[in-house]
Each structure stands twice: as structure tokens, then as C-alpha cells.
Amino acid sequence: MEESPLHQFELHSWIPISVGGLDVSINKAVVFMWIVVALASVIMVMAGSSRKLVPGKLQSLAEMMVDFIRNMIMDTMGKDGMRFFPLIATLFVFILFSNYIGLIPGTYTVTSQIIVTAVFSCLVYGLSLVVGFWLHGAKFLGILVPPGTPGWLLPLMIPIEIISQLARPISLAVRLFANMTAGHVMLAVLFSLTIGGGLLIGWLPFVFTVAIYGLEFGIAFIQAYIFTILTCVYLGDAFHLHGHEEHAH
Amino acid sequence: MPPPQDPLYAGLGQAVRIGTELLAALIVGGGLGWVVDTYLFGTTPWGLVIGLVFGLAAGMRNAYRSAQRWQVPSDNVDKQE
Hints:
With 249 residues, chain A is mainly alpha-helical.
């Protein structure tokens, strides 16, 4: 009997812990989250410790990554956005590492748990609201009225804009979670077809497994990139309220 | 790690964004309508219907907006305010 392709996402508590009725058991996802954090910190600290003028492999990888994140922030938020560099870089590195670690057979993809991505997206969206109200006060509610809207359209535009604002954290969370989950389900289905198909026909799904695995490498990066760039865009919207005129992008 | 500035990946990134943009707004619109129906006024099914229509509009708006943002760097000239 083959196991379900969704079996890989099931979590069983390894060390049951309960704090005041709240289940905080240690399970696979928690352990892999620790591994991601540890690995990311070790690699980035090691890369940052040498500081040679002519960088080694690790250092140039880290420099490339920092440069990439910096460009992303500058393009979407401008100079003010650099205040958020630590947050955005942390998000990017965490998501990137957990996506890639999840591609190693036998491991667990932390970002395939919707609660993980939902917490990130709510944090980002909540922060953008805080920043917006902090900087603009009640005028920040003007984000619900696109510039140049005629008065008689307001009853129609405001509900639409409220929904489109509320959709932001949801689309952010669902996109990352769904892409990671779908990729791993697809790999599991194709590979179980390979096992079940035998030698005669099994090579066909195997070829697809390898091809999709290659594609997943791209997806892992793209999803980390999209999550981070949208973080920048949302924070930037809070920064420059309708501020398209002040930065040329 | 694929080269970040690769236009293929930038394009692919844009493409996978728009689909969820539509879906998420539809979920929020429908969800709000359903909540209004079930818990607030008992106006089944009108809240859901209107919510879905607004959700669809908001989804279109979000998708349009993200596509627009993509286009702007190439031609700043006919940028609309």
C-alpha cells in the first residue's frame, strides 16, 4: 500500500509539551525551523567574519545576497526603506534557507505549513499598518481612496479598496505555502508512480521527477524573492502614501 | 541560486503573483459577505453575492496594480497619476 502524497506534511509531536493548555510540543517542523535558523546564522556569520578585500566563495555569496536585498529595497522603497533592511534580510534568508533545505530528500519544508507563512505575512502587514499610521496619522486612511477618484465613486471604491487591502496578507501567506506544498506533493506523486510503474514504464515519471525537482530549485528562490519584494512594496506603500511622484519607479 | 537579475526569473515571478492576487481578494470578499450574512444580519445569500462581486473587483484591481508596477520601470513617460 502506497502512502498518501500528503503524508509528508503530517506532524507528530516528538516531545509533548503543554504550557497552560497550549500545545507547544516539539515536532519535525519545529526542529527543522531550528536547523534553518542555525544553518543560516552559521553560514552568514562565517561569511561575514573574514571581510577580505578579495572575497572568497562564501563571502562573495553573502555579498551577492546582501547586494540583492539592498537593490530590492532601494527599487521599491527608496533610501528610507534601508531602516527595514534587518527585517527584510532576515525574512529573505529564512525563507530561502527553509525552501532549499526542504528540497533535500528526508527533510521538512517549514514554509509548507500555512501557519508559518501566515505569521510572517501578518507580521509584515501589521508592521506596514503601524508604519503608515505612525507616519501619516489618520491621513493614512487615504490609502483607501486612490488619487483622482471622483466623489460619486467613493461608495464603490472604498469597499473594493478595503477588500484589496485585506487580501494582501492572505495572498502573501497563501502564495508561499501553496507553492511549497504543491511542489512537494507533485514530487511525491511522480515518484510514487515511478516506484509503482516498474522498469517498463517507470522511467517516464522518473524523468519528470528529475525535471520538476530542477524546477523546484527555481521556485524555491522565486518564492523567497516574491515574498520579500512584496514585503518591500507593502512597507513602501505605507511610507509614501500615494507617493508615486516623489520616487520615479 | 539562480541569477537574481535574470529576466526569465523576474517574468516568472510576476506571472505566479497575479493568480494568487485574484484568488485572495475573492476569498476575502466572499468571506466578509458570508460573515455579514451568517452572523450579523441574516441576509443570506445577498451578502455573499455582493461580497463576491466586490472581491472580484478588488482582485482585478490588485492584479492590474501589480502588472502596472511591473511595467513602469521600462516606460516612465506615460505614467498615469
